[in-house]
Amino acid sequence: MTLLIIIIVLALIFDFINGFHDAANSIATVVSTKVLTPTQAVIWAAFFNFVAYFIAVHFLGGFGDSIANTVAKTVESEFITSHIIIAGIIAAITWNLITWWFGIPSSSSHTLIGGFGGAAIAGAGFQSVHMETVSIIVLFIFLAPLIGMIAGNIITIITLYAMRNVRPGKADRWFKGLQLLSSALLSIGHGLNDSQKVMGIIAAALIANRTIPDLPSWMYMENMDNMPEWIPLSCFTAIALGTMSGGWKIMKTMGNRITKITPLEGFCAQTAGSITLFISEMLHVPVSTTHVISGSIIGVGSVKRLSAVRWGITKDLLVAWTITIPVSSLLAAFFYWVLKFIL
What we know:
Layout: H1 2-32, H2 38-59, H3 67-72, H4 82-101, H5 108-124, H6 131-162, H7 168-208, H8 230-244, H9 248-257, H10 263-283, H11 289-304, H12 311-342
């Protein structure tokens, strides 16, 4: 019982950190184009992170067959233990804080999945990992930014053609307003995608420990179809609160270091990112919001000319994306053996 409480608390702490770690994804462009101040932007993004909860419940049919379910299946249920989950979350929190401190926009999603899988491998071997699920997640490390890049490129070309006869000053005013809409949509996509990953971890822990004697009814969960309401509600709340706490180090990279962003381009990048996140939601594939919006910004910037994109920065991003799952897995294995020794 005590370990279950620890898992829930750690998972929500990770969700909070995920919020401020990834806040820049949905607000960097809207701040860099001076549509909103940083304070206004984080409140705006946090509000729509939480609105995503109501959209999921009332319009998407809940969380039975969802990204949360996919994350929960990363490790085979018969091998899941409290030590594995705790080690995985601690590893994810550690890597998230390291990358946040150095301003590296790595993936919170892949950190969590890498930690969960790495701890399971340390505890029960490679047979404990559901390789089909992990393979799809790894594939989308490359597909998600590619989809965002293509969508950003196409949307920008269409938008520029549609606005070809509009004066630049007038277009800027229009798209500053439209950026509020695109930022809201991206924040909804961020909330939908990232909150469910933590929900999947908590759900996996409750399902694995459902036979504990005298388990309180609010902690009992037989399968993903009977998820208690407090799980999604607390996860969406945690990520929204985390978003409100900021994330300025990463915002600098996402805002202007990849490419210089105008209001029109900011709108196109955010719209492309939103579309990609909603596609991943429909496919029940957990993707990185960081990867998606980075790809979208690259796609938008490349419309002007390929040299408009600072490819040195994108190379650094690609390295961070590639090493996140392996590093998180190794950290989780280390923390698993530490926990086995002290608990």
